[in-house]
Amino acid sequence: MPSPTVAEQLVAGSRDLIASEGTGDLSVRRLTEASGRSTMCVYSHFGNRKRLLAEVYRSCAADLTGALAAAGPGFARAYAAYAETAPRHFLFLFAADLDGLGVDPGLRLDLADAVTDLAAASLDGADRDAALAFWLPLHGAVWLDTVQRLAGEPGRFPTAALIGR
């Protein structure tokens, strides 16, 4: 298997930083430290920090949508499992201030479109309204479950039954 490219190393290191620390300090210096690369690599491979973070967002979104696509009718379990195994990536996808990070907030709408389509497919091709009616309450429960776990207060709100645990 070939070694990862510098761009892949930057994305992987940035994902690792978000997974361990969240989105509080995503400076070029911190992103490159986490990637084991120099700051110049960001500019030579992505042009700027914003484009790197957009690629990190797309990478996390691809993980989520890939898991949901593979889950079929197990959409709800797969959605909750992604948030449980990658809680800070989940929050990056759905709660981070993308505009403040310089990332196009439209990426989140693209992700919502993809998740809605996958929810519809998991419901035997239901229409988008039915898919949204299914996904949005699930999303709220998974989000709250994720936030309370990261705050060290799992179970503060009874989300387990809502997300199928």
UniProtKB/TrEMBL annotation:
Entry keyword DNA-binding: yes
Family matches, as Gene3D superfamilies: Tetracycline Repressor, domain 2
Domain HTH tetR-type intervals: 4-64
Annotated keywords: DNA-binding
Annotation: DNA-binding region: 27-46
DNA-binding listed as a keyword: yes
GO molecular function annotation: DNA binding
InterPro entries linked to this entry: Homeodomain-like_sf, HTH_TetR, Tet_transcr_reg_TetR-rel_C_sf
Protein's recorded name: TetR family transcriptional regulator
Species classification: Bacteria, Bacillati, Actinomycetota, Actinomycetes, Glycomycetales
